[in-house]
């Protein structure tokens, strides 16, 4: 399914349908932390509207990989093309990509000094230069979608973890991103709150958002993912549809991982 | 005791706390009489207050002389403080040697300063935006009023003195050291080597040198470096030195605040597409400055009190005026009154800053504790 011949032809716009269908195209990407080779020869093509779940043991590089997509981490070799724009050191490119790519973090990272509503309107007002009234309207629309419009004037510190994470999702959506990245969005939550966040994510998936989720929620993977990717020691070990991934894992390492997370 | 009713699970009502922890008796018991050691401490404190307060009130108010032509007249009237001395010298303490017929300009500047502070210090002021524009323009208006020119009689800065001088140096230092300190702190945390090294060298130099030496450099050495004949006002040099000195300390206080902000905050701002300066201004600095308020106000207070050091290079701040006054044979030996009076002035200023900082911390509290 991965076709890497497109990488050199990204200068010619619009006519390239195959190119246009790719939301994210990662080609032979490597990354090092100092001497440590964290990501090795990553190749990943994500079509528009596709939902990808990335799993793997801790330290396998899955978070680092999705953080490379919006340049929170810098890669040293290979290409990352997001929405037709190649990531380089050019700040203009990075800003363009970050405007189109939303991200949800494990620890929510809401801005504690701003109200929920201000959290949601900050970037639209200052990055997209949206008029304030319009930004507020959009923010309320998304807060209603994540089912907490009544919290709009509270501060993040007054909300539960699950509510905070839903605000974080709404905050990203306010920028109208074409792609959403989720970096272990439920790992810091109490069991009671995981479902409320997953429900929002499932709804988002059903609306056709392109999503890349690093998560260990295998139920979520089975219901919404088009593909599951398994990473270990900085490599993509296996990639398959959820059915095949869970029922017939190809690699010994994948089988071991699955047996460990599904055994209880 | 054991009349606790039993309730079904999930039906236990909310009961008031027991009587001995409620109300004024509970408060006294909890705070003053909670243990034998605490009882002894409370008793000792009471005794100490009884020992100190009545004689102090006596010296300050009851046995004090408020009028009198000189020291002897004062002493004949009362054994306590001789406030007649301070009363007679009040003009000098306030304005220094600023010409008497032009002192309305100093008073006007002071009123304008208070007006400029209102929009800066408080949120819910009508038309705050215009108030802030005015606050930015205020230093220039005040400089024109005090120094003169452009229609006003010029007053040389060596006539400035007293509390007026303290306020000029203190307010200028405070107003400029905060923004310079922020820039230095961000510079020190920059990944660009040239910016980083410049900021570090500046901060470490400033912190490694006593303020007095900087003031000496300002008063004498600069003449050697500047082209001959150039007249660089001494007060202006002092203002620059005091501001830079406070900025160095300010930078380190703010750096402490910046380092306390989780990297996730910057990542979230980056991920939303905010540029560096927007992320700093909207996300990082508001949080970092809030954490740094106690340190910032500490630096402000230190700076404000350090203004008394300008006496060393011959500027007549309140202590300088006071020393000259005590040397006057008419009032010789009344240094206690002098120092108490000056101390009171500084205490009122510094205590106000301290209270304001507490108010600000309370206002910015958003239930975020991590």
Distance between the termini of chain B: 41 Å
Mean pLDDT of chain B: 89
Number of β-strand runs of chain B: 0
Alpha carbon gyration radius of chain B: 27 Å
The helix fraction of chain B, in percent, is: over 70%
Written account of the structure:
The complex is a heterodimer of chains A (264) and B (370). By secondary structure, chain A is an alpha/beta fold. In chain A, 38% of the residues lie in helices and 24% in strands. The two termini of chain A are 34 Å apart. Chain B has helices at 23-32, 36-62, 71-77, 83-95, 103-121, 128-147, 162-188, 193-208, 211-225, 234-259, 263-271, 276-306, 318-327, 335-364. The radius of gyration of chain B is 27 Å and the shape is globular. The chains are: A alpha/beta (264), B mainly alpha (370). Chain A binds chain B through residues 70-72, 95, 98-99, 101-103, 105, 107, 109-113, 122-123, 126-127, 155-158, 171-172, 175, and chain B through 262, 264-265, 267-275, 278, 282-283, 286-287, 290, 364, 366-370.
State the main characteristics.
heterodimer; A: 264 residues; alpha/beta; six-stranded mixed sheet; 10 helices; globular; disordered N terminus; B: 370 residues; mainly alpha; 14 helices; 0% strand
